[in-house]
Every structure is written in structure tokens, then in C-alpha cells.
Specification:
about 325 residues, alpha/beta, FAD/NAD(P)-binding domain, 2 domains, 7-stranded mixed β-sheet, 5-stranded parallel β-sheet, 7 helices, elongated
Length: about 325
């Protein structure tokens, strides 16, 4: 049987941004409700070792997210396993509907639905995710010191990641399906001049190959788009850099978006184009996309929501006083 829940702060999403927002909103005595969404814990649940989150020399991605969830719950955040399928931001209280049939009404909303890396869609890619296949060079590049690395893509992200990975790998092969890159010329020039980089033009990835015991990548099979010829490229790590897709479907026709669907916020805040609606984490961030920056924005969103609710309460109190 469906239920109706009301809260001062409804947090939609459960990655570092969502859980951190829960911690801060709960500490502000706002009794937040956090709806976890389709992938509780977000992208970090598909990561193995995390070595760049402050306070942890090394921690497994899923373990880190469990700790964040437990922290938010311990502070007083109500965490619900549901998926928000509809969100009405046209009037307050805001109203959300869950896949369960439950209704959530809220004085403010924090959107923390994240972004999803775009993948090639290969079965072998899924098999080796977290075991040699990654979509984040700054997250995982450190593990490939003096190794052979493949980067797939042709835009700014791919070139920037390839250049970044030269700090670790002994060789970086950039594989692109066309005969020219889409990246900015200045980045291309840096790439072509780098002694560790080789570009494999006009190729797509047919398969990522590796071992099962232990699980790990050993190379890729790349197919020439014109001749069909297969080239075997040795690799210990494969980085897919063909872009990210922000999970902004709920608000794509309501909030102001930019840069291909990321929610736009006022500089220095998490405020969106609708008062009382805040956004944090990878949903707004097309530049950094790190767990620690997402957590920081989750903190900001909770503080922004706290201020908004306090100001709203002051207005209500003033109106009541004047009527009396």
C-alpha cells in the first residue's frame, strides 16, 4: 500500500553528494529523507580500490559508500530504497512520486542523481570493469605505473586523459574511430608531441581481452573501420573516454541545463533556476567528477537548503504575526 512522506529536505540520489547532504541536513535537525535511486551508492559501487578519498589510504568503493550511508543514517537521515519516477517542481511543497507508488512532499529538494559514464557496450567491457577497465583516469591512473594503457575516444576528455596517463604508464595508445580528433588543437599538439603516446586511427574496439585468474586486462582487439583488419594492442588498463551523461531526466524540461544536460547552478552555490531546488555532485559537474568534490557539493547543498528553509520559516512567521 502506497504511503505519503513529508520532509523539509528531500534528497534524490545516494552517491557521495547525496549521503553528505544527508549528514549535514540531519545535523541541522531538518529530518531529511534520502531516496537512493536505481544505483544505491552511485558510480563508486562499481570501483575497486579508492586511494584518493581523504582519510583512507585505500578503501574499496562499495565499502566507502556503505560507510557514507551508515553515517547519514546514524545522523538521522531516513534512507528509502525507491526510484523517483516523477518530480513536480512547479509549486511548493514539491512533490515526487516513487516507483513504489509512494508520494514524497518536500519544502526543498536536493538533486544528487549523478552522471553515468558512456560505455562501448561490449560484454568484455562489462566483464573487466574495475579490473582493468575504467572511465576515470584521475581515479585509477595511479594503478598503471609503468604499464601499457589504452584510451578510447577522440574529444577533449580522451586527449586530456591520455596526457594525464603518461604520468604513470610506459606507453599510452589512443584509439579513435576517425582519422582526426575532435579535441582542441592545443591539446592535439601536446598529444602528438608526447613521446609516450601513439594514436591508432580509424579503429574501434571489438573486444577487451584478459585473464580470469587473476581477473585482469591484457589487451584489446581493435578493428579497422575501413578494411576490417584486426590489430592486437597489449594493455594492462583500458580507459573509456567517450563522454558522460548526467542523470537529469527528471528535470530536463524544468530546470536550466547546460553543457549537454548538466544542471546549471549559481556560481559558488548549489542553487538551481528554481528557488528551493538544489543540485550537487556529478549532476552539475562536467569538469572534476571526483568523489571528494561531490561530497563537498553535498555539504554545500544541505547548507543552502537549511538557509532557504530558515528564510521561508521567517516569512511564514511574519505573515502569521501580521494576521494575528
Amino acid at each position: 500500500m502506497s504511503e505519503t512522506h513529508h520532509t523539509k529536505v528531500l534528497i534524490i540520489g545516494s552517491g557521495p553528494a547525496g549521503y553528505t547532504a544527508g549528514v549535514y541536513a540531519a545535523r541541522a535537525m531538518l529530518s531529511p529523507i534520502l531516496v537512493q535511486g536505481m544505483e544505491p551508492g552511485g558510480q563508486l559501487t562499481t570501483t575497486t580500490e579508492v586511494e584518493n578519498y581523504p582519510g583512507f589510504t585505500e578503501v574499496q568503493g562499495p565499502e566507502l559508500m556503505v560507510k557514507m550511508q551508515d553515517h547519514a543514517a546514524a545522523m538521522g537521515t531516513t534512507i528509502i530504497q525507491d526510484i523517483i519516477t516523477d518530480l513536480d517542481l512547479t509549486k511548493r511543497p514539491f512533490t515526487a512520486r516513487g516507483d513504489s507508488g509512494d508520494i514524497y512532499t518536500a519544502d526543498s529538494v536536493i538533486l544528487a542523481t549523478g552522471a553515468r559514464a558512456k560505455w562501448l557496450g561490449l560484454p568484455s567491457e562489462d566483464k573487466f570493469k574495475g579490473f582493468g577497465v575504467s572511465a576515470c583516469a584521475t581515479c585509477d591512473g595511479f594503478f598503471y605505473r609503468e604499464k601499457n594503457i589504452v584510451v578510447v575516444g577522440g574529444g577533449n576528455t580522451a586527449v586530456e586523459e591520455a596526457l594525464f596517463l603518461t604520468n604513470f604508464g610506459q606507453k599510452v595508445t589512443l584509439i579513435h574511430r576517425r582519422d582526426e580528433l575532435r579535441a582542441e588543437k592545443i591539446l592535439q599538439n601536446r598529444l602528438f608531441k608526447h613521446p609516450k603516446v601513439e594514436v591508432l586511427w580509424d579503429h574501434t574496439i571489438d573486444e577487451i581481452v584478459g585473464t580470469d585468474m587473476p581477473m585482469g586486462v591484457t589487451g584489446v582487439r581493435a578493428r579497422h573501420v575501413k578494411t576490417g583488419a584486426i590489430t592486437e594492442v597489449p594493455a594492462d588498463g583500458v580507459f573509456i573516454a567517450i563522454g558522460h551523461a548526467p542523470a537529469s531526466e527528471l528535470v530536463k524540461d524544468v530546470l536550466e541545463l547546460h553543457n549537454g544536460g548538466y544542471v546549471k547552478v549559481e556560481p559558488g552555490t548549489t542553487r538551481t533556476s528554481i528557488p528551493g531546488v538544489f543540485a550537487a555532485g556529478d549532476l552539475t559537474d562536467h569538469v572534476y567528477r571526483q568523489a571528494v568534490t561531490s561530497a563537498g557539493m553535498g555539504c554545500m547543498a544541505a547548507l543552502d537548503a537549511e538557509k532557504f528553509i530558515a528564510e521561508m520559516d521567517d516569512v511564514t512567521e511574519t505573515v502569521v504575526t501580521e494576521i494575528a
